[in-house]
Amino acid sequence: MHLTLKFLGEVPEARLPDLQRALQRAATATAPFGLEIGGVGAFPNFRRARVYWVGAELSDPLLQLHTSVEQAFRAVGFATEARPFHPHLTLGRVKPPVSRSMADLLAAAAERVSYRATVPVDTVELMRSFTGSNGARYEPLARCDLGD
User: What CA–CA distances, in Å, run from 28 to 20, 59, 78, 81, 145?
Assistant: First the structure.
């Protein structure tokens, strides 16, 4: 599982050194912190679900990290995301359609989930994703410790 701070899309491999330096600048600007996670949901909603997720609290440290990432990547030519940041951990993707009865069952079950946890966040990674018939596969390209 991962929490996406910024999606870059297709990027030429020659840009990797710029991306690594940008990620390092963003990581340095934020101290390690605990991330509060809990609750279950779906994007855009359970009836038209494409993604099921566990929520993540938009705390000051997480917001600082996200802002630092946006600024660092803007400095190397990537546009700032226009949509609001909705932190979440993706549980899985759905190939529609999900039947209305199944969507209603999932939504009702999600309301009963009382899971809460705090997970340590002390690194960020630059990831490459590959999508295929078996779902997404991720490859770490760079890892930076927070606060270094």
Answer: 12, 18, 19, 21, 7
Q: Is 66 annotated in the active site?
A: no
CATH number of the domain where residue 39 is located: 3.90.1140.10
Of 2, 35, 46, the C-alpha closest to 137 is 2
Determine the structural domain holding residue 54 and report its residue range: 13-145
Q: Which of 88, 106, 144, 146 is catalytic?
A: 88
Choice among 1, 2, 45, 105 that is catalytic: 2
Q: What are the tens digits of pLDDT across the range 104-135?
A: 999 999 999 888 999 999 999 999 988 877 77
127 DSSP β-pair partners: 140
Question: Helices 16-28 and 60-74 sit at what angle, rounded to 10 degrees?
Answer: 150
The verdict on residue 48 lying in a domain is: yes
Which residues neighbour 12 within 8 Å (Cβ) at sequence distance 6 or greater?
Answer: none
The answer to whether residue 2 is catalytic is: yes
